[in-house]
Amino acid sequence: MATKKLDAIIFGATGFTGKYTVLEAVSVLKGLTWGVAGRNPEKLKAVLQEIGAKSKTDLSQTPVVIADVNNESSLLEMAKRCRVVVNTAGPYRFFGENVVKACLEAGTHHVDVSGEPQYMEQMQLRYNDLAKERGVYIISACGFDSIPADMGVTFIEKNFDGVVNSVENFVYMGVKGGAKGTGSAALNTGTWESAIFAIANRSESLAIRRKLFPERLPKFQPALKNRSPLSRASEVDNKVILPFPETDRSVVYRSQRFLYEQEKKRPVQMQAYMTYPSWFAGSVVVLFAMVIGIMSKFAYGRQLLLKYPRIFSGGMASPEGPSEERMERSFFRMTMKATGWPSSEKLAESTDQYSTPPSKTLTVKVTGPNPGYGSTCVALLSTAKTILNESDKMPGPGGVLPPGAAFRNTSLITELGKYEHGIKFEVVGNSKL
């Protein structure tokens, strides 16, 4: 008798992100059947024992599947065992594609937490047509990169009562009571490694995008202008801002491109910024970013960055990752300001442009705890659960999609707000310009 398929398998469950995904699965996947997968059965059992004790849940009967990213047959067998693979094994530029291929061959959906634009866009370029043919959803950026931003734009559009021209996203990450005494690291070195290789290979994105999107989108006016680095933003109490790394913006762009091509919806322009309490704090970040950017271009420089993460991250990354105390006290807050036209405003005749400046604004806040390994894991599992329960509300018949395109018409935003480490979306301002 054939073994009944599990609803989900968490692949890479012994890694830092994987372990915390297992912890969140106890509540998010309650009522569903799920298992864990990785190379080492003893380590997998140890994770189940540790998380079972922490969550006060008996996980001893949780299925354990042996799968190795370098063994394609084992990946295929894993994919055949479930309806959706929850992939936490990064960096995805090295380890992601084999898992995607196994899922496509098995007819199994796939979600991951990649924040690597080159990997995500390459997967879309190579496998989107095959995914649609097989009826499979391959969805990346299902963690802090980029669920809050991409679904935040979706939330804005659903609440705007009009047409959105642009969104400016101001991101703040902090630790309640300050980070002192919690252990200074905020990132595990796996996340650090993914970021280093994404920075090092940023130029790849241009070539991929030219193939992926041979035709440019039309230009819509007014164009959203970039704010000056190290300027102050009144939207976030005059905090100092810096451009946010490109992941969120590139993911939102792909969602907006998809909706324009499929539904002829006017694309939303978007810019993202990080916020800092002072010019000094922002300047220190700029200095570290410059050093990392230069060093990442050379093989020897990358070796040093990966060998000494504490030094080159200013203590923000370490092999041990953040302490439990720091994770419990960490949080993020996004302030998303949209401008556009109310529904009463009409388009100019015989054009899809407006003849008047934007006259309406909407401000949304997106908040959550522990962005790296709490909210991220809840978001990842919630996307898997949404595919299982609401695939009829997703764009058919499948494809390699960003979250905003995939989950626009589902209840994912509501689902994200149900859990202790979930993500909440709320309207905090609505006015005329």
UniProtKB/TrEMBL annotation:
InterPro entries with a match to the protein in the record: NAD(P)-bd_dom_sf, Saccharopine_DH-like_oxidrdct, Sacchrp_dh_NADP-bd
Top-level taxon of the source organism: Eukaryota
Transmembrane residue ranges: 279-300
All residue ranges annotated as the Saccharopine dehydrogenase NADP binding domain in the record: 9-139
GO cellular component terms attached to this protein's record: lipid droplet; mitochondrion; plasma membrane
Gene3D superfamilies: NAD(P)-binding Rossmann-like Domain (3.40.50.720)
SUPFAM superfamilies: NAD(P)-binding Rossmann-fold domains (SSF51735)
A Pfam family recorded for this sequence: Sacchrp_dh_NADP
Single GO molecular function: oxidoreductase activity
Keywords associated with the record: Membrane, Oxidoreductase, Transmembrane, Transmembrane helix
One biological process term in Gene Ontology: glycolipid biosynthetic process
Protein family according to the UniProt entry: Belongs to the saccharopine dehydrogenase family.
PANTHER family in the record: SACCHAROPINE DEHYDROGENASE-LIKE OXIDOREDUCTASE
Protein name: Saccharopine dehydrogenase NADP binding domain-containing protein
Species: Drosophila ananassae (Fruit fly)
